User: Which sequence fits this backbone?
C-alpha cells in the first residue's frame, strides 16, 4: 500500500469538502481553522464528508474519531497517520 | 387514466415551465412514478403521476410555460403486461421507459382519448395542509451548484449546439467548467475534454446519468442492462448498493442493518446517497430573481401568520444523556453513511408526541381546529444561499430513527438541489425547526398556517445538570413549542413538550 503523505491527505480532505460545498473558498480557511463553521457544514453534511473520506481513503473512520477532523490540518494528520 | 395536468405546487403558483419529460409515449407508468420535472418561479419540482397507466400522448414540450391545470399529457389505461412493480418510483418510470419502448406505436394508436373532464389526482383539491409550506423554492444556490455539479435538469449556460455536442460525446455539461462569458460552456470547453470511458461513449439514459452523479457512481464501472447495453437507472442503483455492501466489510455491524432498511424504505435514494449539497449563491441574474421570489413567499406566509395567529411559546430543557449514549452505541460499527445524528431522535420523539397530543397536529380552518389523520412532519431546511424549504416526512410517527435519518438526508440533499417532488412539499401537519447546527440554543418559531404549532430544537450542548441531588455535566437540548392560542392553550403545549422529554429518555422505545 502506498503511504499517503500528509499533502495528499490534505488534498483529499479539501476535495471531499468541495463536493459538499462546491464553491468552498479555502483561501479563507487555514489549516488550523474550524472549517465546519467557516463553510457552514451542518451535521448531515459532516456525516457525508466522513463518508467520502472513508470511501476515498479506504480507511475506517469511527464516530470517536470525529474530534480529530475539526480542522483541515488535524484531518490530514489523522488520515495520514491512520494509513501508516 | 386521464389528463396529466400542470399541478399547483404551492398556493401562489400560477404557471410553470415544463423542464423535462422522464417518459415518452407508450411508456407504462406505475402509480407514483415521477414523469416530469416542472420549474416554477421558485423551484424545480419532480412531479408524480397518481395512477398507473400508459402514456398515450405528450401535449407539451420542454420549455413550454403553461398555467396551472393545463393538460400536459394523456395517460391511458394500463396495459395488462404493465410492469407495475414495487420498484422505487423513479426507477420504475425509467425502467418502463425502456421496457415499453417497443410496443409504443401500437399503444399510441390503440389508446382511446379519455374524456377531457377526467381530472387526475395531481390537480384535485389539495389536502388541508397542502398550502402549509408554499416555499418550494429553488434559490440561486441551485444555479451555482449546477455550474459545478450535475444536479437537476440542465439550466446550464450553454447553447443548443454545445449541448448537442456534449450529448454526442456523452459528456455531462454540468461537470464542464465554462470559460465563456458568465461561465457559459463553449464548444471549445467540450471539445477539449476527453470523452468519458477512455474514448468510448458510455450509453446511458439521461436519468441514469443524473442518478449516477448524485449517487457518485462512475458510469464506466456500471454494467448496462438496457437496450444495446445502455445503462439504466436500476443499474446505477445496483452499483451503488454493491458499493455499500463492500463498505459493509469494513463496518460489519452496518451490514446486518442496511438491507433491512433498504427493503422497507421505498424512497428512491434508500441506498444512502452521499450528500453533495449546493454551494454559495452566485450573484444576480435568474438566481437573484429566484431568491427574491422565495423571500416574497416566506414574507407572505410569515406575515399572515403573525397577523392572524396569536402565538404562545413554551420551552423546556431536556437531558439527552440517554439519547446520546444510545446514538453512540447505535453508530458504533456503522459505516458513515448509515450513522444517525441527534436530529433523527428528536424528529422521532416529536412525531410520536404529536400522535399523543393530536390537538397540536392539524389545521385551523374556518374558525375551528381540524385534526389531521396522520403525522406528517414538515422539516425546515435552511439553504446555503439563504431562505428555507419545508419538505415533508409523511407518517413520521411510524418511522424508526434510522428511517427518519434516511428520509431527512434525502430530503435535505434534494431540497438544496431543487430536486424535490410535488408530494414532498405538501401535507405537513406540524413543522419542526432545528437550528442546533446554526449554534443557537432555542428556537421560538413562527407557525406555518394553517398548521397550529411549530416545534423547535436548539443545539445539543453540555451544561451543568442536577440529577439525584448531584451536579454533573450532561448533554442537553432546549425544546420549544410555538402554539396557536386559538386552537390550544398552554396546558396542551406543555403536555406535548413533556411527552417529547419522556420519549427521549427512552431511545430504545423510539427505535422499536
Assistant:
Amino acid at each position: 500500500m502506498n503511504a499517503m503523505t500528509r499533502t495528499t491527505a490534505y488534498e483529499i480532505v479539501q476535495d471531499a469538502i468541495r463536493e459538499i460545498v462546491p464553491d468552498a473558498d479555502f483561501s479563507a480557511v487555514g489549516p488550523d481553522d474550524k472549517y465546519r463553521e467557516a463553510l457552514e457544514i451542518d451535521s448531515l453534511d459532516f456525516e457525508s464528508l466522513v463518508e467520502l473520506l472513508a470511501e476515498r481513503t479506504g480507511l475506517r473512520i469511527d464516530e470517536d474519531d470525529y474530534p480529530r477532523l475539526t480542522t483541515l490540518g488535524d484531518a490530514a494528520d489523522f488520515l495520514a497517520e491512520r494509513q501508516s | 387514466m386521464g389528463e396529466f395536468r400542470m399541478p399547483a405546487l404551492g398556493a401562489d403558483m400560477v404557471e410553470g415551465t415544463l423542464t423535462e419529460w422522464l417518459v415518452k409515449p407508450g411508456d407504462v407508468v406505475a402509480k407514483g412514478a415521477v414523469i416530469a420535472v416542472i420549474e416554477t418561479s421558485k423551484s424545480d419540482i419532480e412531479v408524480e403521476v397518481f395512477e398507473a397507466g400508459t402514456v398515450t400522448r405528450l401535449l407539451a414540450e420542454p420549455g413550454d410555460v403553461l398555467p396551472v391545470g393545463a393538460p400536459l399529457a394523456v395517460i391511458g389505461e394500463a396495459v395488462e403486461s404493465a410492469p407495475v412493480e414495487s420498484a422505487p418510483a423513479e426507477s420504475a418510470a425509467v425502467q418502463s421507459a425502456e421496457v415499453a419502448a417497443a410496443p409504443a406505436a401500437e399503444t399510441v394508436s390503440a389508446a382511446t382519448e379519455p374524456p377531457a373532464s377526467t381530472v387526475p389526482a395531481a390537480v384535485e383539491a389539495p389536502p388541508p395542509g397542502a398550502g402549509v409550506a408554499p416555499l418550494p423554492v429553488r434559490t440561486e444556490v441551485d444555479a451555482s451548484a449546477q455550474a459545478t455539479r450535475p444536479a437537476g435538469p440542465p439550466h446550464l449556460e450553454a447553447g443548443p449546439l454545445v449541448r448537442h455536442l456534449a450529448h454526442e460525446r456523452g459528456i455531462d455539461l454540468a461537470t464542464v467548467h465554462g470559460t465563456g462569458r458568465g461561465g457559459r460552456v463553449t464548444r471549445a470547453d467540450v471539445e477539449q475534454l476527453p470523452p468519458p470511458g477512455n474514448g468510448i461513449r458510455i450509453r446511458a439514459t439521461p436519468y441514469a446519468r443524473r442518478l449516477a452523479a448524485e449517487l457518485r457512481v462512475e458510469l464506466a464501472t456500471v454494467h448496462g442492462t438496457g437496450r444495446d447495453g445502455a445503462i439504466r437507472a436500476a443499474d446505477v442503483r445496483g452499483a451503488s448498493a454493491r458499493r455499500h455492501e463492500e463498505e459493509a466489510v469494513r463496518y460489519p455491524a452496518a451490514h446486518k442493518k442496511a438491507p433491512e432498511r433498504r427493503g422497507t424504505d421505498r424512497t428512491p435514494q434508500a441506498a444512502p446517497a452521499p450528500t453533495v449539497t449546493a454551494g454559495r449563491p452566485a450573484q444576480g441574474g435568474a438566481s437573484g430573481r429566484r431568491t427574491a421570489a422565495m423571500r416574497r413567499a416566506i414574507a407572505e406566509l410569515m406575515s399572515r401568520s403573525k397577523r392572524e395567529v396569536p402565538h404562545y411559546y413554551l420551552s423546556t430543557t431536556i437531558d439527552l444523556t440517554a439519547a446520546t449514549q444510545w446514538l453512540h452505541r447505535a453508530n458504533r460499527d456503522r459505516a458513515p453513511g448509515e450513522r444517525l445524528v441527534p436530529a433523527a431522535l428528536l424528529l422521532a420523539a416529536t412525531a410520536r408526541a404529536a400522535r399523543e397530543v393530536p390537538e397540536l397536529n392539524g389545521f385551523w380552518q374556518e374558525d375551528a381546529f381540524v385534526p389531521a389523520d396522520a403525522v406528517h412532519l414538515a422539516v425546515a431546511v435552511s439553504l446555503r444561499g439563504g431562505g428555507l424549504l419545508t419538505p415533508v416526512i409523511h407518517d413520521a410517527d411510524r418511522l424508526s430513527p434510522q428511517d427518519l435519518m434516511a428520509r431527512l438526508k434525502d430530503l435535505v440533499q434534494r431540497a438544496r438541489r431543487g430536486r424535490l417532488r410535488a408530494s414532498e412539499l405538501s401535507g405537513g401537519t406540524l413543522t419542526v425547526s432545528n437550528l442546533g447546527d446554526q449554534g443557537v440554543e432555542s428556537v421560538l418559531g413562527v407557525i406555518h398556517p394553517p398548521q397550529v404549532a411549530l416545534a423547535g430544537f436548539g443545539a445539543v450542548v453540555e451544561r451543568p445538570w442536577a440529577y439525584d441531588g448531584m451536579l454533573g455535566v450532561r448533554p442537553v437540548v432546549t425544546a420549544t413549542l410555538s402554539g396557536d392560542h386559538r386552537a390550544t392553550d398552554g396546558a396542551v403545549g406543555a403536555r406535548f413538550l413533556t411527552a417529547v422529554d419522556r420519549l427521549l429518555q427512552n431511545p430504545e422505545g423510539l427505535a422499536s
